Amino acid sequence: TQLLEQSPQFLSIQEGENLTVYCNSSSVFSSLQWYRQEPGEGPVLLVTVVTGGEVKKLKRLTFQFGDARKDSSLHITAAQPGDTGLYLCAVAGDTGRRALTFGSGTRLQVQP
Amino acid sequence: DAGITQSPRHKVTETGTPVTLRCHQTENHRYMYWYRQDPGHGLRLIHYSYGVKDTDKGEVSDGYSVSRSKTEDFLLTLESATSSQTSVYFCAISGDRGRAEAFFGQGTRLTVV
User: Fold this and answer.
1) Contact between chains at B100 and A99 (C-beta distance less than 8 A)
2) How many CB atoms lie within 10 A of CB A14?
3) Interval A56-65: pLDDT, tens
4) Which of A42, A54, A94, B17 could form a disulfide with B104 if both were Cys (CB 3.0 to 4.6 A apart)?
């Protein structure tokens, strides 16, 4: 069983549509990060959410941390082809080693 | 962009040969990590370092060793490469501040034939 379950695994939509992807766990976290990875590149940090219920916006991307700090969602408004990529959620270990554990990701394809 | 360089970017090697991948950073970050990425598994931690000569195992460390003799360099060695180690390998770094946000290199695609 993975620590972080992401859904859906794959999503193919048309330009202009809205979408939401999810990152769920049965564990409680002090913070959670979202990354985007484009083909042939390493993941790039989008946002860190810290407080239960917190909402952060990054242009057309809205990130929410669940009230109980066990889950998170990423909503994209009016998706564009440039949003295509693999979206990964990640949490840091609580032992102080700071290594991240990742979900398996949601692969998003936005068709023009 | 964080200064992280991985080398080589691509490598094909034969089963049973040793292979070393290099990660070089110019950010003076304390923490360095090696991950592998495979379809359906996301990124899995192989080894990490929390300082010069301080390293520890991750969840998929069997068949791998690491060394960190300088702050800026973190080497990953496949002692005797196997086909199951065909993967894309990513190096990452993070500092002491913040929430362990990581910066990644561009990856090394390794094929073991």
Assistant:
1) yes
2) 9
3) 999 999 999 9
4) A42
